Amino acid sequence: MTFLMPFSYNQSEKKSITEKLEQNSFTYFRLNETEKHKNTKAYGEHIKVEVQELEQYFFPYVEHKLFPASITERGFHRFTKVVNENFQFEIHESIQTFIVRSIDVILAPFGIAFLSLRTELEQDKELSDILEFAQHFRAVESRLDENKGSKVIVSTNSKKLSVHDFIFKHLCPYLKPVILQDKKLKGYFGSLPYIEDERMFVTSFLLTEVDATIEQEHLFRIGNLNGKTPEGQPFISSTNPAYIKQSLSDTLHDRWAPELYMLTTDHAFSTISNRSSDELTIELSHYMGTHYYNLLLHYYYKIMLLRMSFEYSEIEWKKDEYYVKSLIKLITLFSSWYYFLQISTRTEGKELAALFRKSFNLDCLYNEVSGTLQQLYKSQENSRADRVNTLLFILTIFTVISGIYGMNLVISDWEAPSGWKKYTTYTVFEWISLITAVTGIGLSGYLIFNTFGRMFIQKIRSLKRTIDVE
């Protein structure tokens, strides 16, 4: 299983984050150096990811973003650390042994990052036990009663830690200061207040007994991570066969049925096979390689689209002109640089991409963001038009009055040192000239002060409320 946890970081600190990761035994992942990972057991026993597969799976314009040659280039920057340590996971009174094979930290564009934990469970476990492990381990912060009661036991010192402490105090203590927090929200997921499910995304490659029958109920439970009831019995979140069949029609990829199935839901992507592991070397390589990046890209799309909808809802229209401009830039750059409808050259890759797009509801989210962009442009145009109209109105008044006076608003009395004392003897036209001149000077000063004042205030607000844009 691989547990994928998104979080936000400050892009201006990318260099220092990179140095911190390298100091903690992470290596930068380059496509032409994947041979280094073959013998490290980063993916598990006898599992290898071939360079040729990754190169030929994606279109070139996608490949360059997924596998940048250096940290200075735009794209997804992956750092990998091999762990290969045994731990125990206690759920109520049962204990399961698992291995953390490796850790990925992926610094994605626009201040989004992913922590990826590759784990492996011991063999000969019941399906309910495996799903129970996934359901509890993915809950970084156990807020619901159904997720409480689980602890990770560290073998070296027998300490019992929550999943949150296991990740941020034992495995990756250096990541905690990196994660940006929303001031209004507490806990880890204050980092991404627009994520609708406050738990990690789970991917899994499950092997049954050889030639075992894989039923629709099994697939439904795997896709929904249905483990056990509080009484310890197998749990399924639906008892209606028609509903189960309809749900699987939207989430299941059964091209190689009945020997292998793939399915994706809002919170899990799973591959299930009843063939022996010796016959699945290619499939395991795809799961760790091409499928991993295919999922990662579409999961990133989902997070970014949710983020932009959230940013739009946070706008204070009377104050956030700079913020609106930043959001327009964010949507435009994301759409042009990273959001691709076609990412894979392979038929299988296209089919999985379509499945991810459907399960993550990307088309609907993108249409909403496109509508947001149009509203932002319209708002900017209206605001700009209002300012121009106001300025033209003021200039027109002064131009008309100045034209009446032949562009000369000077009163002869003003030339004398005591001219201002004779204002009581001014005629109506001289009063109009006086008011126009004084108002014009005052208005000019106001416009200058207001322009620089707005620039200063926007700068202050941009420091307090900024959208991380490359």
Automatic annotation (TrEMBL):
<feature type="transmembrane region" description="Helical">
    <location>
        <begin position="322"/>
        <end position="341"/>
    </location>
</feature>
<feature type="transmembrane region" description="Helical">
    <location>
        <begin position="431"/>
        <end position="457"/>
    </location>
</feature>
<feature type="transmembrane region" description="Helical">
    <location>
        <begin position="388"/>
        <end position="411"/>
    </location>
</feature>
<keyword id="KW-0472">Membrane</keyword>
<keyword id="KW-1133">Transmembrane helix</keyword>
<keyword id="KW-0812">Transmembrane</keyword>
<protein>
    <recommendedName>
        <fullName>Group-specific protein</fullName>
    </recommendedName>
</protein>
